[in-house]
Amino acid sequence: MRTIKHSRLLAAVFALLVGGGSVVAQTGQATPANQPVQPVRSGSALIDSTEEYKASTQELLRLEEGEASRAAARLEQLRQLFAEGLIARREVEAAEQALAATQAGVEDRRGQIADADRLIAEIVAAEEAAENAAQELAAARKAAAQQAQIQTAQRGSYSANSVVIRYTGQTGWSVANLSTVQSFFLSKFGRTLPTSAVGQTATHNRLGFDHRHAVDVALHPDSVEGRAVINYLQNAGITFIAFRAAVPGSATGAHIHIGRPSHRLA
Prior knowledge:
single chain, 61% helix, 8 strands, 11% strand, alpha+beta, rod-shaped
C-alpha cells in the first residue's frame, strides 16, 4: 500500500514540475524567444509537507519502539513465570503475538520514513531536471536568436541584371581577410583562388578607381567556380560585384569584385 501511495504522489510531483510544458503542447503556442524561462519550483511545498509527515512519523516510531521494548521485556517475564509453572501457556502465546504485532508496526513505521526520504530525494531530482531543462531551453532560444541576428546581418541586399550582380553584405571585410576566401576555394577546388588584382593596381589607376580595399577574382560569375565563390561570399555576408562582361569605364571583363564598390579617385 505504501508503494502505491508513494508512486501516486511522485506522479503528481512530476505533473506539477512539467505542467508548463504540457500547456504549451496542448495549446500549440510557443513561449516567445525573448521571454525568460523561469525554473519551476512546484515541488517545494511537497517537500515541506513530506518533511512534516516524516517528523511526525519519527515521533510515532519512537513511541512504538518503546512499546516494543516493554512488550519484549514483559514476554521474557512471562516465559520465566511459565517455566516456573506459575502461568498458563496461553498467556505466553498472547504476549508473543502482542510483541510480534508491535514489532510489525515498528517496521511499517520505519518503511514509511524510508519512503518519505526517497520521495524527497526524487522531488529534488525532478526539480533539478526541470531547472536544467529550463536552462537548456533558454540557452537554445538565445542561440537561435543570435543565429537569426547573424543571418539577418548577413542577408544584406541583392540585385542582378544581365551584366552585373550586386550584393551588399553586413560583414566587415577588407583585403586582410582575403585568406578566408582563399581557404574556401582551395578546399573546394584544390587550387589557389585566381586573383587578378589585390588592392590598387595600374589598371585601376588608369580607370580612376580607388581599389585599395578590394580584390578582383578572374572567374566568370556564371561558371561553376564563380557561382561557388558568389554563394560563399553571400552566405558570409561579404559585399561583392560580379561582372558577366566588360563594362566601359568600370570593368575590363568578366570577374568578381570582392569588397565595397571602388570610388572615383579625387
